[in-house]
Design goal:
Layout lengths: L1 E5 L8 E7 L4 H15 L6 H18 L4 E10 L2 E8 L19 H8 L2 E7 L2 E9 L1 E5 L14 H11 L7 E4 L5 H14 L6 E5 L5 H11 L4 E5 L5 H8 L2 H17 L13 H12 L10
Parallel strand pairs: 7-8, 9-10
Antiparallel strand pairs: 1-7, 1-9, 2-3, 3-4, 4-6, 5-6
Helix pairs in contact: 1-2, 2-3, 5-6
Length: about 300
């Protein structure tokens, strides 16, 4: 599991900004500005999401402001937070839309709401500033997987950290928790690692396997109620996830086992209770009866 955090610790606000024509082609220059700023700060792992977000902010200004120019802003108000913003002279608020399958726009704000720490609109006498905050600190958590130790023989957190560094994430942005053997320990031990580093987060973004989002959220809200929790996973269709694992029975066993934990763990005080629809519960029982039971809790 991966956790990103934000904490209130201001160090000033170095930044970059540029006034650009309010046209779609300005998104190229806006992405260059974001890349320059994040690279200068050593936050290479934020370049891709930053480019995606600034493109959507520019697109919204172009489509909805009706003005000739806009200003693109990239600042670092805290050591673990980056703010991307676009200002224009319109006072209309951007609203996320549910895009149809054939639409090429309208998806960025949905991603912003799901992934960013915060986004908002600051209104000015002359117009508005639409801003998005990204987080810059990571915790990788997890020991060896007890049911599949061959996947990460030195522990999940160690392998995730090495992969992140290979992708350009700076070592100093990563904290390591290598002992957790279940979701509750992922969260409680990560909290201890953060505390030992002098970090008291306001928000955590939990990155998990796709089928674990609900349980990760319910567990985090139970054992760490004072922080805001956002859960995300790789956006995969079910068929694509099956192909990525390559074992249909294993995936089904995992889904059944995780749903069992969603149902049972609240009774043990491990997680918040969640509603399980009747048809989902019936399918769960049918799958158990059909032999998809290798990941069930042991009596």
């Amino acid at each position: 599991m991966t956790m990103t955090v934000t904490r209130p610790h201001a160090i000033g606000a170095p930044g970059y900004s540029e006034t650009l024509p309010c046209r779609e082609e300005s998104a190229v220059r806006a992405r260059q500005l974001v890349t320059t700023a994040l690279s200068a700060w050593g936050l290479h792992h934020l370049v891709d999401p930053g480019a995606l977000i600034i493109s959507e902010l520019v697109s919204n200004a172009v489509q909805h402001s009706g003005r000739d120019v806009m200003r693109v802003i990239v600042i670092r108000p805290e050591d673990d937070r980056v703010r991307l913003a676009v200002s224009d002279k319109s006072r209309s608020k951007p609203t996320p839309q549910q895009p149809g399958n054939n639409r090429e726009t309208g998806r960025g704000l949905l991603i912003i709401e799901a992934v960013a720490h915060e986004w908002g609109v600051d209104y000015r006498r002359w117009g508005k500033v639409v801003w998005v905050d990204l987080l810059a600190e990571l915790v990788f958590t997890g020991g060896r997987n007890p049911t599949a130790p061959e996947w990460f023989p030195r522990g999940e957190a160690v392998h995730f950290r090495e992969h992140a560094i290979a992708l350009g994430v700076p070592e100093e942005a990563i904290l390591l928790e290598p002992k957790a053997r279940n979701t509750g320990q992922n969260i409680t031990l990560s909290r201890e690692v953060l505390a030992a580093a002098g970090i008291t987060p306001e928000t955590v973004l939990l990155v998990s396997m796709p089928y674990m989002e609900r349980r990760a959220f319910a567990t985090a809200r139970k054992v760490w109620p004072e922080v805001e929790v956002i859960c995300v996973s790789e956006p995969l269709e079910f068929d694509d996830y099956l192909k990525s694992i390559g074992d249909e029975k294993l995936v089904t066993d995992q889904l059944v086992g995780d749903l069992q934990r969603v149902i049972e763990y609240p009774k043990l005080g491990f997680a918040l209770e969640q509603d399980v629809p009747e048809d989902v519960h019936s399918a769960y029982e049918s799958l158990i009866a059909a032999g998809f039971d290798s990941r069930l809790l042991k009596p």
